[in-house]
Structure formats: C-alpha cells, structure tokens
C-alpha cells in the first residue's frame, strides 16, 4: 500500500519489475558465491597440494 502511495499506479509495474530483477540478480550472485566456496580445498593436505602445484 505504501509503495502504491509513493509511486502511484502508473509507476507500480516499473517498480515491481525493477525489484524483481534486483532480487533475481542478488540470488544469482549469492548462489555463485556459495558455489565458489564449494570449489575450495577442504583439508590442509589439499591446500598444501594446491599451493605446491601453483609453484
């Protein structure tokens, strides 16, 4: 109701679309960050092995 009062009925579809796109992008970014964390080595032995491969 507050959004309707602030933006009016003509702007409401634009505001809704912008909010939806922003939330979708935020969820996608959060998922990408979580997926990147899964790619990290889990144990010290794996970390050491990766460091040796980089050298």
UniProtKB/TrEMBL annotation:
Protein name: Sec-independent protein translocase TatA
Gene Ontology cellular component annotations, sorted alphabetically: membrane
Entry keyword set: Membrane, Protein transport, Translocation, Transmembrane, Transmembrane helix, Transport
Mode of membrane association: Single-pass membrane protein
Region (Disordered): 30-55
Cell location: Membrane
Annotated gene: tatA
Tagged with keyword Membrane: yes
Coiled coil location: none
GO biological process: protein transport
Biased composition (Basic and acidic residues): 40-55
Major localization class: membrane
Protein source organism: Sporosarcina newyorkensis 2681
